[in-house]
Design brief:
By secondary structure, the protein is an all-alpha fold. The chain contains four helices and no strands. It has one domain.
């Protein structure tokens, strides 16, 4: 990992390094917060305002995390958040 040079980029390290639990608002008791949300993606457009809001917020964070993971995997420093 470019941020922690003594660490290999494993799934668990990526979860820690990219602060996924906090960013995705998922409890730390969930081992893999990104996979949890990706596996729960709706198959139809949500109807309720609450569900739309939940996924609108989470989707933006999921995309940002995937972008940062891509940079880390290819050994490039991820861009700083705006």
């Amino acid at each position: 990992c470019l941020r922690h040079t003594s660490q290999l980029l494993t799934k668990q390290h990526a979860i820690y390094c990219l602060n996924m639990h906090h960013r995705l608002q998922i409890p730390k008791t969930i081992i893999d917060p990104l996979s949890l949300l990706l596996n729960k993606l709706p198959i139809r457009k949500p109807c309720s305002f609450q569900t739309k809001s939940f996924w609108t917020i989470r989707w933006l964070v999921i995309c940002a995390i995937l972008h940062e993971l891509d940079h880390l995997y290819h050994e490039k420093e991820p861009p700083l958040p705006p």
